[in-house]
């Protein structure tokens, strides 16, 4: 898109300021090819605020961080997800991880999973479905789901999805875990209370202090590391390792790898890693 056809004046200098602010807050690297994406995502904010240019928006953001910063981060954060995305991870969880946990944690009968970068909730709800279907009665399931974006967290906690978003879930699972809407909500479904009760949604910036103190049996951090530089990836993976039980699992995205990073994990295959028991 040529600059003279844009609704708002937008320059490379504006983009550089905005991506620097984003990086300083979130650690996410914003490449040059996100220039147009930043414009399209933030133009709505300029209209709403009655601003005439991105230069004005940069100034407004700098001078009014308490009012605008969350809106800015929500706008430029990418949230692409789906139910049972990369299904081989859920199959491995049920076929390998759960049998191990049934032996390892027979005394406490509790499984704890963290979905880091949970977006609109499809991943943690998929985890809850898979685990509730495989854990015996009497076992407690606790899933922590975190994200930087407060808007997607609100949608996730509500648990309402359009029918096309759950089209890939089998009919049996739909009946067991979702309530179908009626009337004006006929094209929507809602996660049943039993499933929602297993998931706790919280806002979290991975670059800041983490309040969690207990250890997890597995961490899903998929399609998150891809946005960071090598040093930041190493730092995050080290922090994940400290929060995992010995022998705990880290699941990352299909386009990600811990290759060439010095970590406490051994590769299992299919972007699954296990914390060393040594």
Per-chain topology:
Layout: H1 12-26, H2 35-49, H3 54-63, H4 65-76, H5 87-104, E1 110-116, H6 122-134, E2 140-147, H7 150-158, E3 160-162, H8 171-177, E4 178-180, E5 188-191, H9 193-196, E6 199-203, E7 216-221, H10 230-242, E8 244-252, E9 265-269, E10 272-275
Parallel strand pairs: 1-2, 1-7, 2-6, 7-8
Antiparallel strand pairs: 3-5, 4-5, 8-10, 9-10
The DSSP helix count reads 10
Mean pLDDT: 91
Strand content: 15-25%
List the domain count as a whole number: 2
Helix content class = 40-55%
**C-alpha geometry:** globular
CATH superfamily of the largest domain: Vaccinia Virus protein VP39
The profile of the biggest β sheet is: 7 strands, mixed
Kindly report the oligomeric state of this protein.
single chain
CATH class of the largest domain: Alpha Beta
The CATH architecture of the largest domain is: 3-Layer(aba) Sandwich
Radius of gyration: 21 Å
| Quantity of strands, as a count | 10
* Structural class determined from secondary elements: alpha/beta
pLDDT < 50 runs, ≥5 residues: none
Per the CATH scheme, the topology name of the largest domain is Rossmann fold
Distance between the termini: 55 Å
SSE order, as H and E? HHHHHEHEHEHEEHEEHEEE
Please state how the strands of the largest beta sheet are arranged side by side.
6-2-1-7-8-10-9
Function: Methylation of the membrane-bound methyl-accepting chemotaxis proteins (MCP) to form gamma-glutamyl methyl ester residues in MCP.
Enzyme class: transferase
Catalytic activity: L-glutamyl-[protein] + S-adenosyl-L-methionine = [protein]-L-glutamate 5-O-methyl ester + S-adenosyl-L-homocysteine
Domain CheR-type methyltransferase: 3-278
